[in-house]
Design goal:
Distance between the termini: 17 Å
Radius of gyration: 19 Å
Helix content: 25-40%
Strand order of the largest sheet: 1-2-8-4-5
Order of helices and strands: EHHEEEEEEEHHEE
Structural class: alpha+beta
Length: 200
Amino acid sequence: MMLIEETAVPLAALPVDELKAHLRLGSGFSDGDVQDVVLESYLRAAISAIEARTGNILIERDFSWTLTRWRDAGGQALPVAPVSAVNALSLRNRAEDQELIDPASYRLELDAQRPVLRPRSSRLPAIPNGGVAEISFTAGYSQTWGGLPSDLGHAVTLLAAHYYENRNESGAGDRAMPFGVHSLIERYRTVRIFGGGAAG
């Protein structure tokens, strides 16, 4: 299985000014533009880290997900949430021939934690032997920062500030995530079921 981010978080959606205020950075410095680029990079890193830990997409964007088999042909749980639209479903065989599936044959079951692709009949279309299914979908809470749940937005700000303040230290990973961030995102960390196992 492979999840690919097809579109990036737009710069306009990043709360660079809010992070500056949180860090109490002054304005009017000659390197202001340089600081903006640095803060943008830490915001993107913080968003990625929190999305990876929660399985929740913050700023809305497009994804594609390929898988070799359905976990349940009666309904396939999608790998992230919340999903607002399934844009396409296609099947590819070993020879890379692609079949676009009629959108009238499936539907999105909306769920804040575990959205599901459901067939309108009894089963999703069979994936060719040695082939893959590719699902293109749109996921995310909001197109703008102001539309995010406040706790997730605050968690990103705290984590980005942590990255900025510890930028000269080596080592990262879970050990670099402050306790306050863990507390803010804990309720979003549900166990998510994938094609062959679970991740939480």
